[in-house]
Design goal:
Elements: H1 2-42, H2 46-67, H3 71-92, H4 105-112, H5 118-139, H6 150-246, H7 251-282, E1 291-293, H8 295-308, E2 317-321, E3 327-329, H9 331-347, E4 356-361, E5 365-371, H10 379-382, H11 404-414, E6 417-424, E7 428-436
Parallel strand pairs: 2-4
Antiparallel strand pairs: 1-3, 4-5, 5-7, 6-7
Length: 438
């Protein structure tokens, strides 16, 4: 598409440049033919006088057509008129009048305009050359209808030659002037583009600095939060130890308080870890390092580890489809992706059937899906589900940061994969990941 647009713009530029040149040529041609009509009137050749007057007005008409970019129409009409004028001049006055010199103007003008297709230009030149040959063989020895003094014929020949050359020079000068103007316009546009480029570079530089500052802040804040959180955590454990040792009367009450503190610390630490991970992704500090991975063995281990920590009796079921084959994936990134999806599957389907981890091996790709039978996701929330810190309306009472799916999606895209979600409110959700196979 860009190539077609560039070609169209180039043709428009050529058309505009040629039109300006021909507008000037038409004006010059109109003036020349008015002068010639006076000359023909003086030498008493009424047919040529009438033709010259008509042609002078026709030149003004063609000038209007060229202004409206009707180049081909006006060019063909002007060519026909020129041929007719040459034939009439040779017939009424004779070959010595040198009217055939005007044949030079037609191909000269054509060569300046390259908007025509090659076949059109070829047909035009062949037709023009054929007319000239026919005219030469038929009228070169013809003396002309009107017997005009030889001195006058010489002057007429000179006038025709000067007129033809003058018209060509007017076209060339106008064409060259148009080129210079276009070059100046192009230089001005280049200067404007360079200025815009400098402004854009400056804006990008500032944006990059702000991005680096943001990443630096996120990294520093995450690490700085860890120290007080660790202190709080250690002191919470110390309180638990002291209350247990002293067998305090309110030990059970203190235990509930410390449990809430521990949970809050865990939540804060998880949030800091997620924010720090997201900052690393945005700054390009996490890399995709694929290896030849046995996906079935990898997922079997992940399922086993997950099932060991479940406390409600449920387990993650592994379902295989198709013929297993090797895949090139980053095991670290894939582990984080599937762990996040599996953790969500358990968290949002408490009291429901076992979640499923399904691997479907196809010829050109492998599809990994994590399906649960829990609360589901409202349709209006599904489009924003992968945005940082976004949580569905029906998940507000369930612990989470709103960053897990965002990070998982980033990891999937880094692994050259794509993720899609389908969900029925109250009927569960299915997250489907597709990786192309080499």
């Amino acid at each position: 598409m860009p190539e077609i647009n560039n070609q169209y713009k180039h043709e428009e530029i050529v058309s505009s440049r040629f039109s300006k040149s021909m507008i000037v040529a038409c004006l010059a041609g109109s003036i020349v033919h008015l002068l010639l009509s006076i000359f023909y009137f003086i030498i008493k050749v009424p047919e040529m006088c009438i033709f010259s007057i008509i042609t002078a007005f026709l030149f003004l008409l063609w000038r209007h057509l060229f202004k409206n970019k009707l180049i081909e129409t006006s060019f063909i009409l002007a060519s026909l008129n020129a041929v007719i004028g040459i034939v009439l001049g040779e017939y009424f006055i004779g070959w010595e009048s040198n009217f055939n010199i005007y044949f030079i103007i037609l191909p000269a003008s054509l060569f300046l305009y390259n908007g025509w297709k090659v076949w059109k230009s070829s047909i035009y030149l062949i037709t023009l050359f054929s007319f000239y040959l026919i005219l030469y063989f038929v009228l070169s020895d013809f003396e002309g209808v009107y017997k005009i003094n030889e001195e006058i014929i010489k002057y007429l020949s000179l006038v025709n030659t000067i007129s033809a050359v003058a018209i060509i020079l007017m076209i060339l000068l106008s064409f060259n002037s148009s080129i210079i103007q276009m070059q100046n316009d192009l230089e001005n546009r280049n200067r404007a583009l360079n200025q815009k480029a400098k402004e854009l570079d400056y804006s990008l530089s500032k944006e990059k600095q702000l991005g680096q500052l943001k990443n630096s802040f996120v990294s520093t804040a995450s690490h700085q939060f860890r120290t007080p959180l660790a202190v709080i955590q250690s002191n919470t454990e110390l309180i638990e130890m002291l209350t247990a040792k002293d067998k305090a009367k309110d030990a059970e009450k203190y235990k509930k308080i410390t449990a809430r503190i521990t949970m809050a610390i865990s939540k804060m630490t998880g949030l800091m870890d997620s924010v720090l991970t997201l900052g690393k992704i945005n700054s390009g500090n996490i890399y995709f390092t694929p290896v030849n991975l046995d996906l079935v063995a990898f997922c079997e281990k992940l399922v086993k580890d997950f099932n060991l920590i479940q406390q409600d009796g449920r387990s993650l079921e592994l379902v295989l489809q198709g013929t297993p084959h090797k895949t090139f994936l980053d095991s670290k990134l894939l582990g984080h992706i599937l762990s996040n999806l599996a953790d969500n599957a358990f968290k949002y389907s408490i009291g429901k059937a076992n979640p499923q981890l399904r691997i479907q091996f196809n010829e050109k790709d492998v599809i990994i899906s994590v399906k649960d039978f829990g609360i589901g996701i409202p349709e209006e929330d599904q489009l924003k589900l992968f945005e940082p810190f976004y949580r569905a309306e029906n998940s507000e009472d369930i612990q989470g940061t709103g960053l897990g799916l965002s990070i998982a999606k980033e990891y999937i895209e880094m692994s050259n994969g794509k993720i899609e979600v389908s969900s029925i409110l109250g009927g569960g959700s299915c997250f489907e990941i597709t990786f192309a196979t080499p």
